[in-house]
Amino acid sequence: MLQRETDQDKLLTTALSWQYRPVSRLAKAGDVAGQYMDNRARSLTKNTAIVDTWNETLPVGLREHCRLAEVKNGVLEVEVEPGVYMHELRLISSELLEEIRSRCGRAAVKKIKLCPTEPIGGFNNL
User: What percentage of the chain exceeds 90 in pLDDT?
Assistant: First the structure.
C-alpha cells in the first residue's frame, strides 16, 4: 500500500510540475530594471544627437513651425504646419537627412516623414 501512495505522489507531482517555474528562470527586479535603463540610455543618447543636429541645421525661420515627433524603425517623423512651411521643409529634407546621417550614424535614420499639424508657433485660431 505504501508503494502505491508514493507512485500516486510522483504522478501528482509530475502532473503539476508545469505550474512551477524553475528558479533559474527567475530574475532579480534590480537586474531587469538595470537592463531596461541601459537600453533606454542608448536610445536617449541616439535621440539627443538627432535633436541637436536637427536644431543646428534647421533654418531659423522653420524652427517655430515644426517639431520632431518620434524616431521609429529608421523614420524620423516631423510635425510641421501645412502650407509654406511644409513645402520649405520638404525642399530641404534631403539635406537635413544627409546631415543627420553623417553626424548621427548610430541613429540609423533612413527617412524623414513630414506630418501636417496645427499651428505650432503659438498662433491663435480665430
Answer: 37
